[in-house]
Amino acid sequence: MGNALYIQLTGMHVSAEFALRSGYIQEILPDREAVLKRADEIADEILKCAPLAVAAIKRIVMTGRYLTPEASIRLAEPIQAQISKTEDAMEGPKAFAEKRTAVWKMR
Question: Would you state the pLDDT for residue 4?
Fold first, then answer.
């Protein structure tokens, strides 16, 4: 937070290396083509995951970041409990055990 505020309030320019060390970016890539290729790879990885779980994680992280750790846990617990009862929650481990790609049903 401190670095982010300093950069934004002062207009300081930062190097890619500084942005990586500070956690503002995840990787440094050589050019636009490599960035787009890597973005597609990451999207493909996310698409392999259970959509209900992905949506739940996004909700918990985006909402929970403004809460105390205790309140964040209280937010996450019922969401996790609901997700754990879905068909998709059973499909993931089953597909893994059967060495096949999971088929998500969004239920």
Answer: 84
